[in-house]
Amino acid sequence: MKETILVVDDEPDILSLTDLVLEHAGFDTVNAKNGPEALEKLKSVSPDLILLDVVMPGMDGFELCRILRTMPEQAKVPIVIYSVLYTESNKKRSQECGANTFISKPMEPDDIPHLVSVCRRLISDYRSNTE
Amino acid sequence: MKLSVILALIFLITITCTGVLFCLMQLFMVDGIVNFEAQNVHNDMSNLNATISAELTQLRQNTEDYAFWNDTYNFVQSPNQGYIETNLASSSYQVQDINLILFVNSSGLPVYAQAYNLQTQQFIPVPADLTTKLNDESLLVQPSGANANSTTTGIMTLDGVPYLISSEPILTSNEGGPSDGTLIFGQILDLKMFSEFGQDLGLNLSLLPATAAQVSTRLGGANGSSGAIQVSRTASDVMTGYLALNDIYGEPACVIVATAPMSVYTSTQSMTEQLFIAFVAVGFLTGAGDMFLLRRELVSKINALGEKVRSINPDPGNAPKLLETRIDDEVQVLTDSINDIISKFSSSQEQIRRSEESLKKYSEHLEELVERKTKEREMLLSKIAHELRTPLASMMGYLNYIMSDSPELSNETREKLEVVQKNVRRLVSLTSDILDYKKIESGNLSLDPKPVNFKEILDECTKEMAPFLDEKRQTLAVKVSEAPLVVQGDPLRLVQIMMNLLNNASKFTPDNGSISVQVEEDGGGLRVLVSDSGTGIRQDDLERVFIPFAKIEKSISAKGTSLGLSITKGLVEAHGGKIWAESQGLGKGATFIFTIPKLGGNHV
């Protein structure tokens, strides 16, 4: 059974790129363009990992993450926040809102393999913990 | 009223009273006393005159006793020794106190003439003048037929000596006539006759045989009758009385001068002087007291004022209170001046305070503005960076996906995609630089420090640089000591520093040039030198190269953002280090040296 990753990003191009990369790596992806949509999707889907963009209209990734962590069924799910701005403050805020890690969106050639490997590692850790 | 005014008034009144009193005394009292003294002396002189008159009366009485006597009557007619021995012996002179006896017969010839010196008790010749007077002047001789009432009594000067003279007709004992000749008695006008009188009155008498001129001078030209009296003040404390006596002919005979000490005046004067001295002394004492009181009062008031001035609070936010003033205060003027200064001080303080306030407001406003503008700019920068980086992310992502997962790509296409990828990376690094620069500039750069072996950083960088160096066929020589070079730092930032410097060196070094890196231990920290054989830097530009976007002549290349060195400087400084450039000049290459201290900087 394929692991499912919920990707939440308002940028359709990034969304499709991420889908492409993650599906190429063997994951199933579910997309949401914003926070409310993501919460809606979570009613029917139980992802193995949630990938959140930071800058989104209405509710940003940090806020969404905080909400997710209050939901019992999402409390342990690995959450990765990614952004085009790989900054200390974003890193810090990711930790504060309960995300597992913060990574950069593809800015360097290495960033895509890094995204995939982070997802794999977190899902495997999550799976081994829940089993 | 001010104390000083009161004291001054007291002083003035004292002095004025003294002066007025003294003047009044001089005017009324002293003049009165002088007049009184003069009157006294005048009275004394009158008494003297009366005494002389009494003497003359006595002399006349004595003369009449002899003249109206039968024996005398007979003697004149027939002079005999018996009468002389009996009645004209020296005892007769002594008893009657007379000096001269002269019997003149009816023919006017002297029958008997004798003078007697009462002091030596000897008979002496009659004055020579007497004969002349008898001849020339008929006044001495009583006319024939004169009765008892006929007499000549008065003063006559004989041989310069004044005599009291009494001339009587010689009659029988019952005063019957006819008269037979004249009897003349003479008594030297002697001060002895007044001695007792003079002593009693404290007069100092002298007798001056006076010519008419002398008398007229003495008596102020008054050609008065016998007994004219003149009193004048001959010295400040001497009153002199003059009694002018005329002879029987009405001519000045002599002057009796009496000098009297003005005892009342003198004592009054000395009393006045003492009073004056007392007044002056009191005045001066009052004055001195005034001065002392004034001084004490002033000193204490000035001290109190000084105390008040000292206690003025110079706190600029607290306007100093004005000092209390009293209108009757000696130091009122001083206090007013100080208050003036305080008011000026206060108003200038107030002005300063207002200026400071407005300056503060202005600077707050400015700060706010700057803060807002900075925030806006940062927001804008973040937005721009984000907006730029989002499409760059998808570009980079897709390129990466295509290039790594499309084995069907021809080498030619792959090379072209690599060019795209390289330029996308440049754009990405540009946005990264902008964000870093923004962080450094706003002081928001934060480091994630940990112990780092700088050799690993170097390895990573040389690996990273290799493709670029190869492209320009540049050599990179790394000289590092054997010992591990561990410092506290942010590895990513240290890599960024080294990469920036290496990129910079490569950028300004021509193809086939050489670059060298030398790492030394420096007091526990590191000193890193990145040298190149490139275009070099002018002496003037050594510091400007770290200024962002500074136009450095011939050193601006199409490549890079010019932000690299500023960011590098910011990163080095965030580590507590220093960075500077050295160059021998244009065309002679450059060396960038930076230090990373052992403990790291503030952000570490």
Describe the structure.
The complex is a heterodimer of chains A (131) and B (604). With 131 residues, chain A is α/β, with parallel strands linked by helices. Chain A is built from 5 helices and 5 strands, in the order βαβαβαβαβα. In chain A, strand 1 (4-8), helix 1 and strand 2 (28-32) form a beta-alpha-beta unit. Chain A starts with a strand and ends with a helix. In chain B, the strands form 4 sheets. Chain B has a 6-stranded antiparallel sheet with strand order 3-2-1-6-5-4. In chain B, helix 11 (454-472) runs parallel beside helix 12 (491-508) and helix 12 runs antiparallel to helix 13 (564-574). The radius of gyration of chain B is 74 Å and the shape is rod-shaped. Chain B starts with a helix and ends in an 8-residue tail after the last strand. Mean pLDDT of chain B is 81; it is low at 554-560 and 600-604. The chains are: A alpha/beta (131), B alpha+beta (604).
